[in-house]
Amino acid sequence: MTRKKILYVLLYIGLCVPGQLLSQINTDRVMTIGKNALYFEDYVLSIQYFNQVINAKPYLAEPYFYRGLAKMNLDDYQGAEADCSEALERNPFVVNAYQVRGISRIRQSKFREAIGDYERALKLDPENISLWHNLALCRMQEKDYAVARADLDTLIRISPRYTDAYLMRTEVSLKQKDTLQAMTDADKAIEMDRYNPDTWSMRGMLFLQRQKFADAETDLTEAIRLSVRNAGLYINRALARYHQNNLRGAMADYDLALDVEPNNFIGHYNRGLLRAQVGDDNRAIEDFDFVLQVEPDNMMAVFNRGLLRDRTGDYAGAIDDYSAVLDEYPNFLLGYQYRAAARRKTGDVKGADADEFKVLKARLEAQNGQKKQQAASGSDDKTRKQSDKNVENFRKIMVADNEDGESRYKTDYRGRVQDRNVNILPQPMFALSYYERREEVERQINYYKGIDDLNARHLLPHRLLITNREASLNEQQVKQHFASIDEQTAAIVKSPRNALHYYARALDFYLVQDFDNALADLDEVIRCDSTFMPAYFSRSLIYYKQLEYRRRDKNYEVEVKLEKEIQVHAYDYNKVKEDLDEVIRLAPDFVYAYYNRGNILNSMKDYRAALADYSKAIELDPRFADAYFNRGLTNIFLGNNTQGIRDLSKAGELGIFSAYNIIKRFTAVPEK
Question: Cα separation of 238 and 232, whole Å?
Fold first, then answer.
């Protein structure tokens, strides 16, 4: 074997040793790769790396914490709780381990234990907003409203501009029947954040409770304007409209709610009732059929469907439904009356007579004081709770059991690693990858002839895609790419100057989040072939991702501060920009390089140059939705709202529907 080949074999051993041996050699490096994977939401992959560190150094707290964090994001709350407990056993001073364990316990309805976690964490970090937020919500779940109010008062003292605290205190005030304080807090929340749909929704629900239905409709309409894909808002506005006898408007809202959330139970039930009231009988039957698929024993839905079948001439079906209800409620006299009429229509005179006799006998007994007749409905309200099983209330609109049809304040526990910042964010960078995340609304197909030609030669293990919707790997794919690293290393040993083998291995390393080795291979690709454009493009993206990872403490709230935060400055992005400059020199028609460089220039705060790159991308591809979106945001940031909104409108037209919400926020006229 030549000296050069021996060198590559040694390199291969250094890169691709078995997991346990690698952990023993450099656990810090494996830990970093695992955190890379976690940050970029490759949770299954990250767990494998943390397992290696735990196997090598089981006395460390950090890998247990991060593994617990990954498990929580995979909804393995029991496993996350156990891992955080292991981390705290090794280091009881890690605040975020209490935070993650608290959230995991909340998801298992262990509110008391979660409260204990947050109380201990607050002793270590008494001004942590997320901890106070979650603690107050746990108190509310435990119905400990007085203490929850005290916690929220403290939170507001710590952070007087924290809108969620006012929303939660509004909820607590309502539970304590203090509607005046609730309205004061709701007004304050709107004053502080009028572009937050929760603030308008909360006050709208307050107006509903106080029977100010027109005001409720106005506030809920504003909430919908700011959050069009929220089914609960339409359900609640339908209730406000129903109370104003606007049946058509209420039905339209139920239609919109069911477009957003097709399986919404309350939406189908109430729409069925309203359709029945306006004579749309067949479609009302469809709604009650859906309800009964979900709850076959919902006797009010059965009875309503029976009435509709009766009206549409399906007497046999109506009799079946009436009989099912009467089997469950044998004293429901109205059911006997309707069944008697239906039986008479089918010629069942004997059955009809029996039902009518049952009704007559019950009335005579009631008159004679022998038996108390069943109460009509218990109240004159137009609505009933979802848990109400009194069949006499079959005509009433259903509301959820929390008194208002939908939760006034969504219990959004703070601290999950995937909870993105609610600020408006640009569309992400494009990458060359084998995998793409599917979306409900497919946008344009990303194409470039040079990449298509490379795919046509079948020189890479998989088809290369141009995407900014990268997908996380599953366990099988992770194993496949580790095996591919071995295969490509063997190929490199045989042919050490073949750039494509290095590039294929670089992609494997990139997909398993080993950025350092991926960059080393991309450097080798460029040494072998300085004209290979994809290497520069991939290297620029990996440089960028490393910078994003270094900024993680700013973007993610659940993070152990075990290392000093590294500041990322504009000049750090020069390395990324230089590679994209080279891509554009080699492939001046590669539209995605201009787009990515525009994103980098934005990060460097060179907004005018970013606009020029987005414009060039749009010139090359007039249907490039992401470029319109980001150019629109950049224009708005520079104060060019008219041009920005025009670009966002085009982005929405081309499939990025979140653009419409941003347009509404920037065209909203504040109340005077």
Answer: 10
pLDDT band at 330 (very low <50, low <70, confident <90, very high): very high
Q: What tokens were used for 44?
A: 């299954």
**Among 470, 645, 643, residue whose Cα is nearest residue 545:** 470
Query: What are the two backbone dihedrals, phi and then psi, of residue 41, each rounded to the nearest 5 degrees?
Result: 70, 25
d(CA 37, CA 511): 9
- CA gap 97, 129 in Å, rounded: 16
Q: What is the dihedral of CA 466, 469, 474, 480, to 10 degrees?
A: 10
Residue written as token pair 């304080």: 181
| Coil, helix or strand at residue 399 | strand
CB 568 within 8 A of CB 550: yes
Residue 74: the pLDDT is: 85
CA 324 distance to own-chain centroid: 40
Contacts of 231 (CB under 8 A, 6+ apart): 257, 258, 260, 261, 264, 267
Rounded to the nearest 5°, which phi and psi values hold at 65?
A: -60, -50
CA distances (Å), origin 536, targets 287, 530, 549, 655: 56, 9, 20, 29
Question: How far is it, in rounded angstroms, from Cα 235 to Cα 254?
Answer: 6
Determine how β-strand 431-433 pairs with β-strand 465-467. Answer: antiparallel
Q: What are phi and psi of 331, to 5 degrees?
A: -105, 10
What is the per-residue pLDDT for 411? 44
Task: Extract the tokens encoding 70.
Answer: 């990954």
Distance CA 460, CA 92 (A): 48
- Which pLDDT belongs to residue 342? 95
Q: Find, among 318, 315, 593, the residue nearest to 451 by Cα.
A: 593
Sign, CA dihedral 107-112-115-116, equals negative
Q: What is the mean pLDDT of the segment spanning 76-84? A: 92
Instruction: Give residue 353's pLDDT.
Output: 93
Mean pLDDT of all residues in the chain?
86
Phi, psi of 541 (to 5 degrees): -65, -40
208-228 per-position pLDDT tens digit: 988 999 999 999 999 998 887
CA distance 597 to 585: 13
Report H helices in 193-332: 197-209, 213-226, 231-243, 247-260, 265-277, 281-294, 299-311, 315-328
pLDDT of residue 14: 44
DSSP letters spanning 544-579? HHHHHHHTHHHH-S-----SPPPP--GGGGHHHHHH
Q: Which residue has the higher pLDDT, 378 or 253?
A: 253
C-alpha distances (whole Å) from 114 to each of 108, 355, 385 are 10, 57, 30
pLDDT at 370: 56
Report the distance separating Cα 614 and Cα 626, nearest Å. 9
- What would the pLDDT profile of 169-193 be if each residue is shown by its tens digit? 999 998 998 989 999 999 999 999 8
Helix, strand, coil percent values for the chain (each to nearest 5): 70, 0, 30
Lowest mean pLDDT among 216-220, 331-335, 364-368, 552-556: 552-556
Which of these, 153, 135, 155, lies nearest to 144 by C-alpha position?
135
| Three-state secondary structure of 433-464 | ECCCCCCCCCCCCCCCHHHHHHHHCCCCCCCC
**Cβ count within 10 A of residue 246:** 16
DSSP 420: -
Q: CA torsion sign, 144 to 148 to 149 to 154?
A: positive
Q: With bands split at pLDDT 50, 70 and 90, how would you rate the model's confidence at 526?
A: very high
Distance CA 344, CA 204 (A): 49
For residues 614 and 595, give the distance between their C-alpha atoms in angstroms, rounded to a whole number.
6
